[in-house]
Specification:
With 609 residues, the chain is mainly alpha-helical. The protein folds into two domains: 392 residues, no CATH class; 164 residues. The chain has 25 helices and nine strands. The longest helix is centred in the middle third of the chain and has 29 residues.
Amino acid sequence: MGDWNKNNTLLVFLLALVLVRLPLSIVQRTPFQPDESYQSLEPAHQLAFGYGHLTWEWRPNTKIPGVWWGWMGEGRLRGSLWVAFWAGIYWCLDILGLSEGNALIFFPKLIMAVLASICDSMTYTLASRLFNQSIARTALILSLSSLFYAHALTRPFVNSIETVLMVCALNFWPFPSARPQIQETISNDDPSGKSRPLATGIDFQERKRTRIALSLAAVDFIIRPTNAIFWIFLGGELLVRRWKEGKPKECGRLILESTFIGSIFLILSILLDTAIYPPADDATIPLTIPLLPFITHNLLLPTSHFYGLSSIHYHITQSLPILLFTATPFFLYSLLDVWKGRHGKTPLVLLGLAIWSIGVYSLLGHKEWRFLLPLLPVLHLMTSLKLAPILFRPSPSSSSHESTPESSSSPPKTTLNSRLFFFLTIPQIPLIVYLSCYHGAAQHEVIAHLRSQSQVESVGLLMPCHSTPWMSMLHRQDLEQDSWFLTCEPPLGTSARLHETMESIFYSSPSRYLLLYFPPSPVVSPRTFHTLRRLNPNIKPWPTHLAFFQTLLSAPNGEGDKVREILEERGFEQTWVSGWNGFDWAQDDERRRGGVVIWSRIKPVEDYS
């Protein structure tokens, strides 16, 4: 078992930050999924600056009618801790006068690069503590070269900070082969004059480390309640192990400490949530407790199913190969050895954690790759068990020399298997470049362009909902009131079969949408507009700039031509086109094919008053 070398950990952190994470974070100019903005930076921007878009999870939901537990659905689904962190960053930038420049975009990248580097270094430290330096170096290589880390970890997902906190907590967790071998000694009246060990059962240092792990786990749970899936297994395994060791008092102590620490952090989080997002005046409970509506809409109600259902084998057949990529065959190679206990008890615990977590997540209807992101450090450790002896082979020089007391106390010299190293890393580089710089780049590029154009008075995004960031990147309060994008709110208290969103209405017939939801002319008197709004409450004024994907103008059944005709009749012309948006066949939504274009209202049109 390797020592926890703080100097090595710091060195690994700095190298990971400077050589990998910060460069990747800086060049990253593509989106992955909407939650990277709308569950972190966007609500933080609204909290810090007073404007921005809040999705339905961040707005106070009402009581669910018709069921006795309906009151549990009241309030917001999301806790404010992660958002408050980003809001604090925004406040600091605003105080320093840096909120109007590129610092608003750069600092989140810098912070996420730091957090990702902490994940890398703590993965190395954990492997060193549990196993040896060879396995630690292998786990570090897997972490730094991970395609999924490169694509997701440096984004402000809740899953990203969940992963960082998870691997940090695991560094303090009492695994079977990782308990610090420390015993207190006392001087006594033994005639021999020798000190004897103080029989304490479990040493004080381990208890202290376990409390730190529990505290980190509690913070992780507050940020993302589904993290409890991981800790239910780890806590249960530790209780069973202590009981089998004949230490029932330690089981009781662990339960009490877990309850106490969890309660303290839960109370603090409720106070923070209530202070930031006070409950409605007619709320059943005069406190903001996001955990209750989170459970209601994710377990008691199929609200999350609105965003897609996946097969039960999704995480096994898709998530694992995507998370591990080139390391997948070595992970599979390690499973049998771990299962047979050839690497000791700790890998069995890690394997149990992986099986349990993947199994529970597989039972949930809505699945995404990133839900398993906190498990990736564990998967890297398990993969390294079999990969390390192949990747780091004993050097010929070390085996040819006779063993000496000095050499036997130091790790044997090894050489890197360059072919295997290149197999693990080289195939990922072009994919990392493509995903970071090109795949969906137009969705960020268009917002950056609109932000820089002072003549823009209002913006409308005719594209799949949440295709772009909003005010967290646009950051123009003058555009807040009259700008909009198509939304896709889930059915809350209504039948999913009858539910329609602005997005679904638009894409069912784009030309009909433009005719029904906008005035006949962009120039219309306030009185006429109010008359039109009485007839159709959803009608809105024409913006000065419309952005949409080029594929809209080639929509089937003549819809593309109709859209073009309607826009041209109302004085719109194409004034900007994005750069390459990636391969059309690789887009997860065919409606996002082609680049993004901006049509501006520049021609005079007839006044409709």
